[in-house]
Amino acid sequence: MTRLFSLARRFALATVSCSRCSCWRFGMFYAVRRGRKVGVFLTWDECRAQVDRFPAAKFKKFATEDEAWAFVKNSGSPDGSEGKKNELVQESQVKANKRLWESLEEEEDENAEPCAKHVKQNTESVPSVSKDKFSYMGEFVVVYTDGCCSSNGRKRARAGIGVYWGPDHPLNVGIRLSGRQTNQRAEIHAACKAIEQAKTQDITKLVLYTDSMFTINGITNWVKGWKKNGWKTSTGKEVINKEDFVELDRLTQGMDIRWMHIPGHSGFRGNEEADRLAREGAKQSAD
Predict the structure, then answer these.
(1) Counting CB atoms within 10 angstroms of each CB, which of 4, 50, 108, 239 has the fewest?
(2) Is 146 a known active-site residue?
(3) Is the pTM of the predicted complex or chain greater than 0.90?
């Protein structure tokens, strides 16, 4: 009975989205194993566009992201050769591979700061990039962000941010975080950098992958309450990352962002590349 209730509850939960920033958590996921674009899509319309009149299209609807991605990467042979082949097809068709959206991790404390990552602001002019250089999920452009900080919380802390748009993409960047060197700051500013870059390309619809639930919770949930409380937490404490979230909140204005959580260090290319860029950025000298 408990298991049935749990399953019923899971299916009853609709996809949650903020009025402005859309943090997607639950809902149906449409997996396309064979189609114009291989991957997992959020709506039937997006899925249908990939499979309609496509020869021998293979697709299916799932209630969870892991089941959907398992279908996409499912191997038809014992040695997994077909699964590997599908991954290569997906990578060539969708330049920045859409990776697994696993269940959300346990939410972090809203005022905790375990490891913030620092981002160095780049004020150089950004060249216009052709639209076909980006990876899309429906009408939304896909980007991965990550932040890192070695010796977090110590005097010699070094933080960096990474933004990954796809293989050899001209907007991929790894830079040193300026200011206070913490892991959480790096995560927040990595998202800031991605949004700044999106705006230079006139991109207003963005699927932003991050492994930081602190950043997602902050911008989609806590910020609203913090602003009402004069930037105080529910316990009356000062918000440690106030300036960082003020900047992120400012940048999200006029943007339609779907905040997607992805587990860190789990082998998903977009996240791994963003992490690599962040670590490269952390090695740079600070301003």
Answers:
(1) 4
(2) yes
(3) no
